[in-house]
Specification:
The longest helix has 39 residues. The strands form two sheets. The protein has a seven-stranded mixed sheet with strand order 5-4-3-6-7-9-8. The protein has 454 residues and is an alpha/beta fold. The chain folds into three domains: 58 residues; 58 residues; 218 residues, Vaccinia Virus protein VP39 (Rossmann fold, 3-Layer(aba) Sandwich). The chain is elongated, with a radius of gyration of 35 Å.
Length: 454
């Protein structure tokens, strides 16, 4: 029995010694911790020590967050390049197509998204190092909106070629009233595909949240893209249906957009998706006196009409006719229930995605011609129309032509609207008023901007 007790007693002694050693270590650590707290001023308050212990300049002494971010960026960038090289090698082997798709969708895109987000991790600061945010920034909680609105200082610390020290990105003032919709629009993964939300974007625009903020996501395209027709065919031929991403439209193909369909979209666009009918516009005489021909208008200023603007909603037929006469026309368009912008571009013409709220993005005295039809009618507020007309006057050069095409309103309102067009004292080349219905009338006119030499 005595022999069997020895191993147990020896083991107990070892455990006791271990407990004693651990106890001594605990006491030593506790004393050292109390000494550190004391030296830091916890028990004897010392302002200099506290500032040294907590001061913002010394907390990150020897640690530069920008250097750490740069290291992470370099690592992610190297990984991204390596994965791209592997993808290129996999493209040579069809048997690895599934792995290629997996890497591209599940690895490359998230890595690139993280890389872009980390690269843009910057906070605007003022001289003393504190974060400065404009009052408008505090209105929003979505990170992308806050980053977009925040002033962007020049990296070189000098005035840039614009003559400013910072770049300010702008949004429309009505964006504040549509905060929920705007935050939904700006809620996306950086570097990934944008949501199919063009209708949300257009809703924001037409309600005054214009211009919209830029986004850092990839625009979706049609699944089976087909190259456009040659220019000699595309002007008067409906594009291939596969070239339009038919998101949130009632029609699923261009044939559906014919005049026979009551739900084709913008109701004033009568027959504008039927190319045979479109070919007759502005080149064939009609029974209405308010329908002017292109050749007659161009004859007013022979050889002087080179560039212009078609202000309305349509499929670009006016621009197509003018292109055949070597005149370049930019067509404004909104996707009011139908892909107007897409068809204008696929016809080989230039769409300008703009609303009534927006100042025209052209410099002063540049356009030879402004043509407007089917958009501004008797529904429009007179004050709004006044701003629009003065903006037309701004971009129209001296001697340029303003072609008002089939403007209509109630008879009782015609005097008000005619004053709007006549107030700028343009020279009248054509001026025709004709009945549209029992209570409505048409107005068509071609007016020339005076020189106004100073």
């Amino acid at each position: 029995m005595g022999r069997s007790c020895f191993p147990r007693c020896g083991f107990a002694r070892i455990i006791a010694w271990l407990q004693l050693v651990l106890g001594i270590l605990v006491i030593v650590v506790s004393i050292s911790s109390l000494f550190r707290f004391y030296s830091a001023g916890f028990f004897v308050h010392n302002e200099d020590i506290c500032r040294h212990f907590y001061g913002p300049k010394d907390v990150y002494q020897g640690f530069d967050i920008n250097d750490r971010i740069a290291e992470v960026l370099t690592t992610i960038e190297n990984l991204h390049k390596k994965l791209e090289m592997n993808l290129q090698q996999m493209e040579k082997s069809k048997t690895r197509l599934e792995y290629k798709n997996y890497l591209e969708v599940e690895v490359l895109r998230p890595v690139y998204s993280a890389y872009t987000a980390l690269k843009q991790l910057r906070l605007p600061k003022i001289g003393n190092g504190t974060v400065k945010e404009e009052s408008l920034i505090d209105t929003f909680t979505t990170e992308e909106i806050r980053k977009y609105i925040a002033p962007k200082e020049n990296r070189i610390g000098k005035i840039n070629f614009y003559g400013t020290e910072k770049i300010y990105n702008t949004i429309g003032h009505a964006c504040i009233l549509m905060k929920k919709e705007l935050e939904e629009y700006m809620d996306y993964d950086i570097g990934s595909y944008c949501k199919d939300d063009w209708n949300l974007a257009q809703k924001l625009m037409v309600n005054g949240c214009d211009p919209l903020p830029r986004r850092r996501c990839l625009t979706r395209a049609s699944k089976v893209y087909q190259k456009p027709y040659p220019i000699n065919e595309s002007l008067w031929k409906l594009p291939d249906d596969r070239n339009v991403r038919w998101g949130n439209y009632q029609c699923r193909n261009f044939g559906c957009l014919s005049g026979k369909n009551p739900k084709r979209g913008y109701t004033k666009c009568i027959g504008c998706f039927e190319m045979e009918k479109e070919k007759l516009k502005w080149v064939t005489n009609t029974s209405l006196q308010v329908d002017f021909l292109i050749r007659d208008v161009l004859a007013i200023k022979p050889g002087q009409i080179r560039i212009g603007l078609d202000y309305g909603v349509g499929t670009g037929t006016f621009a197509a006719r003018m292109r055949e006469l070597n005149v370049t026309i930019v067509s404004t368009a909104l996707n009011l229930g139908a892909p107007f912008n897409e068809i204008i571009a696929l016809r080989g013409l230039i769409p300008l995605y703009a609303t009534l709220n927006q100042r025209l993005p052209f410099f002063d005295n540049t356009m030879d011609l402004i043509h407007t039809t089917g958009f501004l009618d008797g529904w429009i507020d007179l004050l709004l129309m006044d701003f629009i007309i003065f903006d037309w006057d701004r971009v129209l050069r001296p001697g340029g032509l303003l072609w008002i095409d089939r403007f209509f309103c109630n008879k009782k309102d015609m005097e008000d609207y005619t004053y709007m067009f006549q107030q700028l004292r343009y020279k009248k080349h054509k001026w025709v008023i004709a009945p549209k219905s029992q209570h409505q009338v048409y107005l068509s006119a071609v007016l020339e901007k005076p020189p106004r030499a100073i």
